[in-house]
Amino acid sequence: MFQELFSPSVQHSLDLAGIFVFAISGALLAVRKNFDVFGMAVLAEVTGLGGGLIRDLIIGAVPPAAFTDLGYFTMPLVATVLVFFLHPHVERIQGAVNVFDAAGLGLFCVTGTVKAHEYGLGLTASAALGLATAAGGGVLRDVLANEVPSLLRWDRDLYAVPAIVGATMVVVCIRFDALNGLTSVLAVVTAFVLRLLAMRFHWRAPRAYNRRSTAAEEPPGPKI
Amino acid sequence: MFQELFSPSVQHSLDLAGIFVFAISGALLAVRKNFDVFGMAVLAEVTGLGGGLIRDLIIGAVPPAAFTDLGYFTMPLVATVLVFFLHPHVERIQGAVNVFDAAGLGLFCVTGTVKAHEYGLGLTASAALGLATAAGGGVLRDVLANEVPSLLRWDRDLYAVPAIVGATMVVVCIRFDALNGLTSVLAVVTAFVLRLLAMRFHWRAPRAYNRRSTAAEEPPGPKI
Amino acid sequence: MFQELFSPSVQHSLDLAGIFVFAISGALLAVRKNFDVFGMAVLAEVTGLGGGLIRDLIIGAVPPAAFTDLGYFTMPLVATVLVFFLHPHVERIQGAVNVFDAAGLGLFCVTGTVKAHEYGLGLTASAALGLATAAGGGVLRDVLANEVPSLLRWDRDLYAVPAIVGATMVVVCIRFDALNGLTSVLAVVTAFVLRLLAMRFHWRAPRAYNRRSTAAEEPPGPKI
User: Fold this and answer.
1) Digit-coded pLDDT (tens) for B141-186
2) Is the ipTM of this complex over 0.95?
3) Which residues of B touch C75 (CB under 8 A)?
4) For chain A, which residues make up each domain, given as ranges?
5) pTM given for the model
6) Do C223 and A34 make contact, defined as CB atoms within 8 angstroms?
7) Which among C63, C68, C84 is the nearest to B209, CB-wise?
8) What is the three-state SS of chain C?
């Protein structure tokens, strides 16, 4: 049933598009970090394929899709070539890149959750892996670039929440046997729109209780 | 036989307690790094479940226990909520947290070694995975927080050695067919007490030979 | 057929030598980062075995060879002891270490590609895993040491290219059914010599287009 959410060719095209925009973000970070063209390609591959790779290793789907589908492997290389020659232009259309990245986030949190559930995981675990699929590539990208993952940072617009909402909608639909093409698209669109709104209005998640006051930024006592 | 080391419910409660205290250390680091509440949850999950996840991926136990037991997944969220509202108090009882962390270290180095051996690994490899189970979560935590893993740092009290001693005791017992509830508890307690002593007396491991003199800190020649 | 590329004992000795020299580089970095002896051992193990571990997890060869062959596990410990007592001397012969590291690179990009193909991966995916086998340990080493992976950095001599060339030669030979002991050795030697030449003449890969001018180093506009 799940395989019929979208027709296989539509699903595949969407996957390729999602991998491509994630890879763009990896290649752009590589340029900012002053990496060479091979560093760009490695970071693009890791960003585009990393989330699905983590999911596939955990559910035991080996070899992972990233290594069995030549198209998946090729998209990050295309992204690398594009950014290599055109990166000032790509940076200029950062807004457009962010919109596509939001689309990738929405898509992957849904397909990741569905695939994890197909492999027999429970509902909560499936939703957690949906989040890992959507956000894992970006975390690996930041770790390899030796930066604090932007997923975790307080001063970035909400990224995890839209993916969590989308994944949760999927598992609720599965629970009530209502997962079909329509509800899947609805979950993708919800996560996508939430992420767009988060970027538009700079929604942030709260930090721990007493860090919200400025005084807490510089605690008087010694730190461990 | 191995499954009967502890009764299943006792074993499960101990696992949950160990995951909880590890998750507390992850959530506290997230607060110090100024992450938002989702960053805290991610770091708590990774710290609490990461060691067992690495072990399960390596021995081929997929999906890993972290994704099949809802309790395992929930404990880090509880730890996040607690730290979110009470983190100044949690930091104040850092000493108590450290004691529980030492207990988790002792417990996980033993259960990790036993599980790896159950899956057919040799004695040395099992002990190595026992160490990875006990210390892996903390290493992932530090890598995600973009810090040098405290496991590796010279200026931290011994952490690996107690786990290595506990894991070694287990494989010696397995070798001589003497692994039972009593010897397991003995291994847990030994690792636990060694870690407490290391913290109490600030035991440190030596650095490479000529770095022990202060002069070596600033070598005259050019560095690569 | 593939198993007969080299006689098993020759293959095993070469693997041990490659693991050993990679582990040396890990232990040396640990000394520079001021880690203690256990941090040295952990970094040596990760550097020596990490590449093969990544490959084995992805192709589903669990438990990975790193955990089933005691010799693989022991070599990094030997490297640690050596560096611990003799590291000023080891640093002095850095040139020799680099030559051995280049040999390990050439060897592992070939054996990694062959093993991935034996497990049923396609030609492109096998070559990608050959690169991951050869370079993955060094990337894990740098991530654990909280440094930007030298594989990705612009200001380091070519490292990925020789491995990519070696792995590509292997898959071309497989494609035309010409993989045998002779062509395998040829691929190893080609990667090895390319890496030596890259170090000798400081070959670098280009960075993205407009970063090549000095002016681009300090872009005038605000950065994201």
Assistant:
1) 999 999 999 899 888 889 999 999 999 999 999 999 999 889 999 9
2) no
3) none
4) 2-204
5) 0.89
6) no
7) C84
8) CHHHCCCHHHHHHHHHHHHHHHHHHHHHHHHHCCECHHHHHHHHHHHHHHHHHHHHHHHCCCCCHHHCCHHHHHHHHHHHHHHHHHHHHHHHCHHHHHHHHHHHHHHHHHHHHHHHHHCCCCHHHHHHHHHHHHHHHHHHHHHHCCCCCCCCECCCCCCHHHHHHHHHHHHHHHHCCCCCHHHHHHHHHHHHHHHHHHHHCCCCCCECHHHCCHHHHCCCCCCC
